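Changelog-linked ticket: cobalt (II) ion example.
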Amino acid sequence: MTDFFKNIGKIKYEGPNSENDYAFRHYNPSEIVMGKTLEEHLRFAVAYWHSFAWEGGDPFGGKTFDRPWFGSKMDLSKLKADAAFEMFEILGVPFFCFHDADVRPEGDSFAENSRNLEEIVDYIEGKMETSKTKLLWGTANLFSHRRFMAGAATNPDPDVFAFSAATIKTCMDATHKLGGQNYVLWGGREGYETLLNTDMGRERQQAGRMLQMVVDYKYKIGFTGSILIEPKPQEPMKHQYDYDVATVYGFLKDFGLENEVQVNIEQGHAILAGHSFEHELALARELNIFGSIDMNRNDYQSGWDTDQFPNNVPEVALAYYEVLRAGGFKTGGTNFDAKLRRQSLAAEDLILSHVGAMDVCAAGLKSAAKMLQDGKLEEEREARYAGWETNKGRAFMSDDLTAITEKVLNENINPQPRSGRQERLENLVNRYV
Ligand code: XUL
Ligand code: CO
């Protein structure tokens, strides 16, 4: 036991009228909604990096947090794991996510990194034997160390490609060993700063080859989880190759991997790409590549990735509406890829940020379920496209231009515009949130 979270007990559901800061108002894990418990629907995960590895720095100043586990020694990494599992227990979260660099001390070589990772993974495996918290996903940090400054898979130096491939292998092994349900690839520095020094075609081939190797290795080791790419349009690079869901889909199609890889969609990344979160979720569903979500918002004025905990129920409800329309999560879940503000120094801030976020998501999911079950929105959508369900409408999809032209002439087809009823639908949504 560490004494970091001392005096903070397990968070329980007390209902919407509770005045207790340390209680859930909306997240009752065992409440049944559309045939599943809220715990099964939401599949919450804590992000190890923001909660336990991030030091509170920004471009103008360094560390603000003072955690007893900061430092690059193995015993400190173990202390960090102890604190992390204490927080998982306090929150009752079913999952966590990690990068290799979050959990192990940084070594001077690939061999040392691998040894460190193996040692801490054994330690975490031991903790998981008595914990209810499972691994949602693992991933490799191929963006923080300076060797990755010009990319990992897409680096101009083949040695960096090799170092990255070897690192991914160790992280896939670690994820597999810990029973992870997904393996995530966020292309941290897979992109470019300037086209003047970039061979985009070559870098794209390198990225495709790396992804193929990841998929091959998944089968080789018998990993039954999903491989997920996390799209992001920019930051840290000026341009990132995995810009958004549509771009990732084009890339997957190009390399024949569209049935092997899905997407982990982050709200803040969707906004950076000029989309809404629900747009990205709906598109992934339609393309059959929906996997998982990172539920963290950006500041709407700053224009960069501020990774804040969700706190807006209507926004979250529209996202979960699309998740429910996709049939809900399978291997995926709701990962809070969110960090505290750098003045939120106290242990209680780490707990209360998650309590609030879990409550907002639970309230959003319940509103979304109600919208879907009441069926009014879907009735409107169906009515809008009803013409396509008639024999006349269906035939247009197989006619050619000549046949259609004849019909337009012979049947005197003269379409009359109808209202899209947007305001009515927006009013309807506001009744649920
Ligand atoms: C960065 C980001 C990452 C990924 C995992 O913007 O979202 O934390 O989720 O590498
Ligand atoms: Co993320």
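Closing comment: Example verified and attached. Residues 347-374 form the longest helix (28 residues). Residues 391-430 form one domain.
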